[in-house]
Amino acid sequence: MDLKKVAFDKGFSLSFGSSNQKRVYGFTYENFENDILKKQMHYEMEINFMQDRYANNCVFEINRKQIFIDNKAPDSKMEQIVDKAAQAMYPLRIKVKKNGEIEEILNSDVIGKRWLAIKEGLSKYYTGEIAFKVIDKIDAVLLDEDLLLESISQNWFFHLYFKPLYVAYGEKLRCKFIWDSPVFGSQFIKYGVVHTVAEHYDTDDKININGDGIAIDERTLEEIRTGYDFPKNKLAGGDEEPVESTMNVDYKLYAEDRSIFSVIGTFETKIDENTQRKIQLELYHFPETSSFRPWSDFKKKESQRIFDSYQTKEEDDFIDYVAISRKQHALLPKPEKILGPPREKIELYIHEEPVVKDEISFLGKIKSIFSKK
Length: 373
Description:
12-stranded antiparallel sheet, 2 domains, 10 helices, alpha+beta
């Protein structure tokens, strides 16, 4: 069976085309130690794809449903505080760059107001020094837009979903990126990652992108876990080895609009000679029906391609009908000029008709569409 080649844009690039559609995604996080499951978490995310009124920026409205930890709703005091605080974040509205990364949070002021209302109830119900410290820490994050954006990047769903997938991959169909991944919660590991696009759609008519990477972080494992943002041991002339970690993430995108269908990722980190930590992540779209396919933007993209091809032509490639008319008019014999009053006085009666404006010709309409602004 011959597979169809992926329809790239100019420069072997992919563009995000989904608009005004809602999707529900299921997300699962699993933490293993030597292949023994230590912790599991899953929840659903509802995403509404929108555009601004000028259709220049893509806006996502995101709402998280109930979270389950080890197949149970949060039951410890700390888990409940964090879960209730997270409710203040949703619905979350963000603006996304053309490459797929988050640019800014659009409703941070609304999130702050929701949090203050929730905080009042939490402070009355949860008492004790530890609870107050957790609430104060959450308070600092949710009331500061920059810290809130940083906090979102520590969430695995956002970290995987909003990656720079919509870029030019070149003839080799690959490009390089740096990933800062939250392997230890708020502590990140830096990876050098190569994104590679499969040349053909798969048998399910999906675009496949693989992200394969290795840690390029110069910090030791201990430095990362204790929060150092620089390689203290290396700068001090120590001989401790930097962290050893690898990652691999597979993306599947719908052919029609290049939106994400699924993400499956694995991050493996060496803890010591006898211990290996593995994080397994899965993210799937839950379609409304088994035959679901997103709306295709093929016609829109083709119209844009044709328009762009005219816009890039030189001015000489266009037929200047006004100039041609002037040249032809210049070749006509000029009427004889008569100086002084006419030899005979001629009186004519001219019946005046209402003036009707000339309709724009079909050719004129076409030319006006492709004329440069």
